[in-house]
Specification:
By secondary structure, this protein is mainly alpha-helical. The protein contains seven helices and no strands. Helix content is 66%, strand content 0%. This is Rod shape-determining protein MreD. Belongs to the MreD family.
Length: 173
């Protein structure tokens, strides 16, 4: 008997919804006590999809999403784009087997890369004259590390739920 296979969808389906949600979470105001521990939701979504579907979601798309975040937050143009694209770039080039690591190892790597990207971006903001001297890199990195474990599992669930397949996997039957 020939079983009907479920239709496979492009990764843009879940990616678009996830980026929209991440941008919303980036611009929403949190209480002051929690604000210093806000994870980089957009960077986490971009990192996940850069490894899930590297042919469609790449550093260029991370740069464009970062520019949208710059426009939404009023940050100096291309600072958030630099942060998002550099995190995707570092993890993609230096950790080729990132998806094979256990989730807590992935979280530690993301936390370290996050703090490196934020320090470099802070330095560039300072050179541009727009530096914020009340920045907590450690709190953001810790929150991003912890958030990765939940966001990666959530996005994996959504990709399975909506039958999302990476580019090139549609042809394989």
């Amino acid at each position: 008997m020939d079983k009907k296979k479920a239709p496979k969808h492009s990764s843009y389906l879940v990616f678009g919804f996830s980026v929209f949600t991440a941008l919303f979470l980036e611009i929403v105001n949190f209480p002051a006590e929690i604000e210093m521990f806000r994870p980089d939701f957009l960077a986490l979504v971009l990192i996940y999809f850069a490894f899930f579907d590297p042919q469609r979601i790449n550093i260029g798309l991370a740069w464009i999403c970062g520019l949208f975040l710059d426009l939404l937050t009023g940050a100096p143009l291309a600072i958030n784009a630099l942060i998002c694209a550099s995190q995707v770039f570092i993890i993609h080039t230096q950790f080729r087997r990132f998806s094979n690591y256990v989730i807590y190892q992935q979280a530690i790597i993301i936390g370290l890369v996050n703090i490196i990207a934020h320090v470099v971006a802070y330095w560039l903001e300072h050179l541009l004259g727009a530096g914020n001297y009340h920045v907590n890199f450690i709190g953001t990195a810790i929150a991003t590390t912890i958030a990765w474990m939940f966001i990666a599992l959530l996005l994996k669930f959504l990709c399975k739920k909506f039958a999302v397949v990476p580019f090139g996997a549609e042809q394989e039957d």
